[in-house]
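Predict the 3D structure for this chain.
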Amino acid sequence: MKKLKIADGLSVLIKKKTKQPARSERLPVFEAEPGAGLDNDLVAERVRKGFANTAVEPPTKSVGKIVADNLLTYFNLVFFSLAACIIAVRSWNDLMFMIVVLANIAIGIIQELRSKKTLDKLNLLSVRKGIAVRGSKQIAVNIENMVRDDIVIFAAGNQIYADASVVEGEVTVNEALITGEADEIKKVPGAGLMSGSFVVSGMCRARLTAVGEESYAAKLTTEAKKSAKRKQSEMMRSLSKLVKWIGIVLFPFGAALVYKEIYILGRSVEEGVTSTVGALIGMIPEGLYLLTSVALVAGIMRLAQGKTLVRDMSCIETLARVDVLCVDKTGTITENKMIVEKISPLCEERYSKEDIAMIMSDYAAGMESDNETMDALKRYFTGEIYQRPEKVMPFSSVKKYSGISFHPDENYILGAPDVILGSRFSEYESEIERYSSEGCRVLLLALYDGDIYDEKLSFGLLPVSLVLLNNKVRPEASKTFEYFSRQGVAVKVISGDNALTVSEVASRAGIENAKKYIDARVLDTDMKIAKAAEVYTVFGRVTPEQKRKLITAMKKAGHTVAMTGDGVNDVLALKEADCSVAMASGSDVACGVSSIVLLNSDFSSMPVVVAEGRRIINNIERSASLFLVKNIFSFSLALVSLFFTLPYPVTPAQLSLVSMLTIGIPSLVLALEPNKNLVSGKFLKNVLYRALPGGFTDFFLVLCVLLFYLAFGMDFDEMATVCAVILGIVGILVIHITCVPYTKLRKLLIVCVCTAFLSGVLFLSDLFELSRLYFSGFLVLAVMALLAYPVMHVFRKGLDRLRDAVVERKGKQLNKYKQGDRQK
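Done. Predicted structure below.
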């Protein structure tokens, strides 16, 4: 049996689905030759005995989990209990509220199943594959179809998907995602590779030693899930708190209300129960979770149709609140494909252009194609190969160069000129910066007297040539960055390239303040990084660890930060960002750690993704206020009725009419509208600010009706009908205020709500327990209806003044603190 945790805190025991094959049988380790790998029979045996690299959890919920999550919630349990109370007293009309509850459950299940179907298809497009050696052939295999003892190939950019041992070749790996240590570690034959780490440079063949749930990363994930709670977004955290406190007070309120109705006011059991159920139903925001989940799921489906895979639902809200977007240069501002423009000799008396081309052809041939720069060099330098390397050091994003040794007296270094030259950079600065100002990536080829693996280039070196590369700015980049500028989102460019080069490219792409650039090598303390993060737009020569620290500094400064990237050097920053977006064409590990993956690898789709996030959260905020109007009214009136022993005036049937027409239908319609405004402020504060005037207006007017009832001996059923109609009128006024400015859809909505409510009152009065009104009842109704808008206006103005006073007070306190800091 397996215990599933349900969203609102309930648990349900369900049977496990079909089990993976048990590993009860011992399977001897088979050490296949690196060049041969396993044959089909050995692979089939390992799959049959449960030694496949099966994921610990599926990428989407199972059908059973979807049904359970929507059905077995705390509030559904409350609703079914209240329905049982109504059935017990045989007040059948008062069961109308269950129609809305069952509709909520059905809509939630159907919508999630549709989403599951769409996302499952999308996951097939984004399935991760690796290279395995089987039957002496290299073949692409889904990583879940890898088995223990498989010989696999890992190269730069690959995430290590199962524990392994290097059998041939060398790689440099980063284990920061699992150990927290950002150091790059060299792995040679015999060294172990931990699942969850990723390859920075090099290429190797490795034997898988532990797969699936036995791998290090899977065990770490399982242990983390036992002790750690899932991180919630600000909106979901607010909703959870709201639901928690409503759940806590429901039962004490219910017990007190039923005692008051039956034992103090002397009403019948049927009247006492129905009155109490009506009060409790009013306190429960029954459709709020449905509204939130439907809006989020609908947004995820829309993004999926645009080839955007959302892996974490909470990142939708984060995207809506983003005010800083960090991007890399290559693959985001520019196209992925890089081209070599030319070479510029620096020592022509010793090395001619032909000599340099020959050296570069040997250099490129001796290196693995583990990054776009090397691919460009291989495409350009295609001359005859004269010598093979004895030693190779792949490019390191930390060192900013690569190296190759053909024999002890001929070692070459290729990489960032300012890093390689060090104190001698000034000798070549004017020429290098001239090319950099043209937007070129400038590499320096130098002959080095020391060992290419030296920690520092402390021996003599001879600059041989500059190699100039370029990649075109994406045609759509300018429009994309213009959109973010209009939306108030600051764009920061964080790159490992020369700062001047990046600045020039960013200027061409239309990024604001692109001339504010800095070389990150001068940012040698966290304090300097924090200050630079607020001042500069372009950061050059940034190490992967510095990228992460820049993201951290921006978050500490109060920004909501999104990061886009596609390379291994972006991984730590992607992991640190509030919302991470990867290009599917990028490295495996970048896609693996990101919340959102652009399957079309098109950065120009980012405005659509951000706009979708804003549409969802803004509409949820706006629609959620409709629910809280009813909750504020019900809590306030229930509290007053307890203290002053007043009868609760609204029945469940009457409340069902009001809730369905002024809350349920309008909230779903408004939740799916376009809305591109920047999300700001706290979710719960925003919602309460919208809802309080309507809720207090309901409370004030219904209290006035109750006083009329007590003072002038008005019939109870007539009084209850007046209260129900008043609630409907105030609800329609709240919809009107929410719909301003009107669109065609909103006009149609308000007309339909008014027509449906009037029809319900006139033609379905028996169904909703609305009694006939006489002259006194009509008079009270007319007075209260005319007062509704002025009373709501007064409450709105009072709330505005209170908010302005609080903001002014906080502003004064902030200025006082700032003055104190200046004096210090």
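Confidence is low (pLDDT under 50) at residues 1-22, 224-230.
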